[in-house]
Write a sequence for this structure.
């Protein structure tokens, strides 16, 4: 609805009524002769408010516009929309008055997206307006005419300029954002999108004259046709490479990947032929470019449709953005043959739809980035987590423990390390099988994880061994935590054999001291755990390093747990 409102404002009919007639230029024609033929009704009549195609491939075309009589003496502007690529001359009985083109930088009044002739006040309100569409090598496009007073023209011109600038700004912003993602994620999909969108901006900027007015790129004057053709071909090339990766054709449409990539490679070759300045090659490129563009656009549409049907989620984003633009392009091409003369808003709709496509594809790229992040996080979790217990594996726990130990040293916080080993686990495995052993490991890991705080670091060290690093707790608090762990594991009442022997856990405790490394802390906790193993199991002992002459290992403090 918003786009339709814009188009209705841009193309609202505020001009004076016009009647028109035309014929192709013949050798020896003079302005007075054409005006006389118009008065005698020998020219071909047409409706200036509707799109009309005027041949320009030979000597050009004469166009005569007859305003209806008006009782006002306002300054008027004759606008020709959409802006033609070739030049147009305004004549009177004395000869040419003024010639205008998109790349003209001498006029003080320029219509944005159209050509505009400012008519003097002293020119009669009902005097016929004679125009000559000069011969041009560019493809002819249908035009319509509007005669407005200066104020109405300036208002309509400002509306169009606001609309076009906003659309181009959206497309450029989306392209630059994608370029940033391409650099950050090192994903060429975003780079191909950037190339496609920037080329589309150039195509529309050339067709509407935006590159010249208001951007003022005078150095492109005279080469707009070559720039437009090259940008069109490259946009299809970038779109092909984008579709191949974005829609994941190797996975969802492998047979279509080769022709799509070939299209992406072939279009730049056509551009090179067009720029070669060798007559035969230039003509070959001119013949090839339009059929390849049409077939290529259909190929991309078909490939995305097949990929979407087979499960590619990004393909639907592409179809949502690409299909309306393709339909508009087809309708605009049909106008060249004289069809759809009342739909004068198609060119502006193409600009608006380009902004819409940029937003839709950017949403698709954002969805792709989120999917990539989820996949990367999943891979990281799989790499960091023990497959059975879902606790940190030894590598991931060691890396996290190094960081916690460094933080504790910086903040001068106490850190305790628990080394835990299941008692009688080998007997359980031998007598009940590895499946029972796996179930016991899962149950014990869940108990340990639930009993510890979220900021405590718990991991599976290997086999039936676990390690836990407790941050910001002293030795007494650590002993209480470890004792509670012993009791909770024993209360699981996991039978080891037929003699009422239950699974339990032995825990060694070591507190961080000055000069400790992670390895030394683990070693002391491991020694304390072995002391528990040798002295009854199912309880906790704390390793203490005391200052003594011989530096011998001191018997750790112990807290007796429940059970055997």
């Amino acid at each position: 609805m918003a786009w339709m409102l814009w188009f209705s404002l841009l193309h609202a009919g505020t001009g004076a009524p016009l009647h028109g007639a035309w014929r192709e230029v013949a050798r020896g024609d003079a302005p007075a002769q054409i005006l006389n033929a118009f008065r005698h009704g020998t020219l071909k009549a047409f409706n200036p408010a509707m799109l009309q195609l005027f041949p320009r491939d030979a000597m050009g075309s004469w166009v005569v516009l007859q305003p209806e009589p008006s009782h006002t003496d306002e300054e008027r502007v004759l606008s020709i929309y959409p802006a033609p690529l070739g030049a147009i001359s305004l004549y009177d009985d004395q000869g040419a008055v003024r010639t205008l083109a998109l790349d003209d930088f001498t006029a003080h009044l320029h219509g944005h997206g159209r050509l505009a002739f400012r008519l003097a006040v002293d020119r009669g309100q009902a005097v016929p307006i004679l125009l000559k569409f000069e011969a041009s090598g560019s493809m002819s496009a249908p035009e319509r005419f509007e005669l407005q007073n200066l104020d109405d023209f300036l208002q309509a011109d400002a509306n169009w300029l606001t609309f076009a600038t906003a659309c181009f700004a959206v497309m450029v912003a989306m392209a630059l954002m994608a370029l940033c993602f391409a650099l950050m994620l090192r994903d060429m999909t975003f780079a191909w999108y950037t190339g496609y969108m920037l080329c589309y901006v150039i195509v529309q900027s050339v067709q509407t004259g935006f590159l010249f007015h208001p951007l003022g790129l005078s150095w492109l004057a005279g080469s707009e046709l070559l720039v437009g053709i090259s940008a069109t071909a490259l946009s299809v090339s970038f779109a092909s490479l984008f579709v191949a990766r974005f829609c994941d054709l190797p996975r969802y449409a492998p047979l279509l990947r080769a022709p799509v990539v070939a299209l992406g490679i072939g279009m730049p070759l056509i551009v090179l032929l067009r720029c070669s300045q060798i007559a035969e090659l230039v003509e070959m490129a001119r013949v090839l470019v339009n059929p390849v563009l049409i077939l290529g656009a259909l190929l991309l549409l078909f490939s995305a449709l097949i990929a979407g049907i087979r499960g590619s989620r990004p393909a639907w984003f592409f179809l949502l953005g690409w299909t309306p633009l393709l339909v508009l392009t087809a309708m605009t091409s049909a106008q060249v043959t004289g069809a759809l003369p009342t739909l004068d808003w198609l060119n502006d709709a193409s600009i608006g739809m380009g902004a819409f496509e940029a937003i839709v594809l950017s949403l698709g790229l954002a969805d792709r980035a989120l999917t990539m992040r989820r996949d990367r996080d999943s891979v990281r979790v799989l790499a960091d987590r023990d497959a059975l217990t879902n606790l940190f594996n030894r590598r991931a726990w060691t890396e996290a423990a190094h960081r916690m130990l460094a933080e504790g040293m910086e903040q001068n916080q106490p850190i305790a390390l628990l080394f835990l080993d299941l008692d009688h686990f080998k007997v359980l495995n031998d007598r009940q099988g590895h499946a029972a052993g796996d179930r016991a490991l899962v149950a014990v890991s869940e108990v340990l994880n639930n009993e510890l705080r979220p900021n405590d670091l718990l991991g599976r060290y290997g086999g039936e061994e676990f390690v836990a690093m407790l941050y910001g707790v002293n030795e007494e608090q650590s002993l209480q935590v470890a004792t509670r762990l012993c009791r909770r594991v024993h209360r699981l009442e996991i039978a080891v054999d037929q003699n009422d022997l239950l699974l339990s856990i032995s825990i060694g405790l070591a507190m961080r001291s000055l000069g400790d490394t992670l390895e030394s802390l683990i070693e002391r906790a491991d020694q304390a755990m072995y002391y528990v193993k040798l002295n009854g199991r199912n309880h906790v002992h704390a390793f203490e390093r005391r200052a003594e002459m011989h530096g011998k290992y001191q018997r750790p403090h112990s807290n007796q747990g429940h059970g055997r």
Remarks:
- The radius of gyration is 40 Å.
